[in-house]
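Inverse folding, one chain.
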């Protein structure tokens, strides 16, 4: 299976500079890498982005995630493998990804408050930006039908 077109961030090179800058900032936010990987994977699952799910699993494994936990991300609420902080980050990722599915606040106060109990402002910033960038990547990849197993660049 081939993509419909070359990735727009590669067609317009200045876009890649901005993307790389934001991702660099995310990793300066002191949020645990495994949490960043988990929220990336969960948002990608919600959006049905096979390229990002595939890449997210590979990246999470490099960060030390186990197959056992990765197989349970889609069912994190029922799975016993996640800490309270990870659950708070996953709930925040889901709310920020499913913004069109809610009436009222996109991210309810109880979800925000739980995340804020576990993460400081710098860490929350990194998590929020990771979720936003993941949704950005998901939208590009699903639009151009980027196949799983391919990488940008």
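Residues assigned per position:
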């Amino acid at each position: 299976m081939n993509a419909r077109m070359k990735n727009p961030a590669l067609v317009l090179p200045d876009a890649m500079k901005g993307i790389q800058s934001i991702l660099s900032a995310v990793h300066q936010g002191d949020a645990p890498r495994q949490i960043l990987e988990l929220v990336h994977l969960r948002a990608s699952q919600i959006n049905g982005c096979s390229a990002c799910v595939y890449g997210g699993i590979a990246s999470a494994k490099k960060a030390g995630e186990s197959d056992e936990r990765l197989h349970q991300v889609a069912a994190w609420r029922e799975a016993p493998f996640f800490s309270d902080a990870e659950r708070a980050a996953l709930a925040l990722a889901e709310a920020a990804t499913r913004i069109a599915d809610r009436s009222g606040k996109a991210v309810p106060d109880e979800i925000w408050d739980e995340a804020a109990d576990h993460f400081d402002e710098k860490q929350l910033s990194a998590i929020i930006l990771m979720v936003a960038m993941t949704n950005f990547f998901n939208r590009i990849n699903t639009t151009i039908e980027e196949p799983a197993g391919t990488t940008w660049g």
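The mean pLDDT is 95. The first helix runs from residue 8 to 11.
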